[in-house]
Amino acid sequence: MERTLGEIECSFTQQLHQWTEQFRPYSAQGKCAAYIPALAEANPEHLGVCIAHPNGQVMKAGEWDIPFTMQSISKVIGFMAACSVCGMEEVLNRVDVEPTGDAFNSIIRLEAHKPGKPFNPMINAGAITVSSLLPGKEPADKLEPILSLLEKILGKRPLVNENVFKSEWETAYLNRSLAYYLKQNGFLAAGVEEALEVYSRQCSIQVTAEDLAKISLVIADDGFDPFQGKQMIPRRITKVTKALMLTCGMYNASGKLAAFVGVPAKSGVSGGIMAAIPPRGRRGAPFQEGGGIGIYGPAIDQVGNSVSGLMVLKDMAEHWDLNIF
Ligand code: DON
């Protein structure tokens, strides 16, 4: 007998619940980020998972509604916003699209490779450069295209968590060094403090796993939002964004993501993971028309990726054959 849509969705949700319970204990293998003191206050045992289907359903399990800051996931939004308002060529004049295999805040390549162009927008040097390029003089003006892109997709204006922003701002010694280095080499399009404020504020934008699932659904569907029936981001920009997520999205674990998960994804040190499942032709597999995944698990590994979150993503990709290769 054919199963109804409701029954199918119910079985997906049950599966999500099973994963959250199965992988939650593994969060003990990681720790909440402490280099930004406000992030250390998260509950390391939290694990929330959402998957958005193009038919309008969002399936949810665990602590899917806990707000957390985007951190590095905001680099994806910053890149798409900058490409939309400044043009992709202008952005790529200042930042490359090459993976590094280095830590997200590494400075090494800025000096080792002349003329010091940041390797990609998913590492700190590249993201600070992208933030500097956004139009306007004041940090609030530059932040606007990022907030309004999120508002368009989510139907609500996200908040900047001032406590997390302050905590990051006061401890951003390494990011400040990166910004000075970029300024010296002519890649920063604004002052060091302005660029850094935009970057730190975008990292402090608050979302839930459900929000991430909705955003990644739009990225998966080449910028089209199936919920609202509208093109939100130019197609060409989302194609490059997905390639960057796949090759650079999980920092120095990006190669492993491509090899063993095969889904474009971006992580942040607050424990979020946003993964975009592009439409695939797979006989019998679910989510053939694509989907968006949002995960929150604040205990992270040494690289900066959520321990339990990554386990869920890996199992999910295997179980539902989400791998793009
Ligand atoms: O630049 C920083 O330190 C953070 N605000 C963002 C870093 C981040 O999320 C890297 N993640 N794995």
Automatic annotation (TrEMBL):
<feature type="binding site">
    <location>
        <position position="269"/>
    </location>
    <ligand>
        <name>substrate</name>
    </ligand>
</feature>
<feature type="binding site">
    <location>
        <position position="199"/>
    </location>
    <ligand>
        <name>substrate</name>
    </ligand>
</feature>
<feature type="binding site">
    <location>
        <position position="175"/>
    </location>
    <ligand>
        <name>substrate</name>
    </ligand>
</feature>
<dbReference type="Pfam" id="PF04960">
    <property type="entry name" value="Glutaminase"/>
</dbReference>
<dbReference type="InterPro" id="IPR012338">
    <property type="entry name" value="Beta-lactam/transpept-like"/>
</dbReference>
<feature type="binding site">
    <location>
        <position position="168"/>
    </location>
    <ligand>
        <name>substrate</name>
    </ligand>
</feature>
<keyword id="KW-0007">Acetylation</keyword>
<feature type="binding site">
    <location>
        <position position="251"/>
    </location>
    <ligand>
        <name>substrate</name>
    </ligand>
</feature>
<protein>
    <recommendedName>
        <fullName>Glutaminase</fullName>
        <ecNumber>3.5.1.2</ecNumber>
    </recommendedName>
</protein>
<comment type="similarity">
    <text>Belongs to the glutaminase family.</text>
</comment>
<keyword id="KW-0378">Hydrolase</keyword>
<dbReference type="InterPro" id="IPR015868">
    <property type="entry name" value="Glutaminase"/>
</dbReference>
<feature type="binding site">
    <location>
        <position position="124"/>
    </location>
    <ligand>
        <name>substrate</name>
    </ligand>
</feature>
<comment type="subunit">
    <text>Homotetramer.</text>
</comment>
<feature type="binding site">
    <location>
        <position position="72"/>
    </location>
    <ligand>
        <name>substrate</name>
    </ligand>
</feature>
<dbReference type="GO" id="GO:0004359">
    <property type="term" value="F:glutaminase activity"/>
</dbReference>
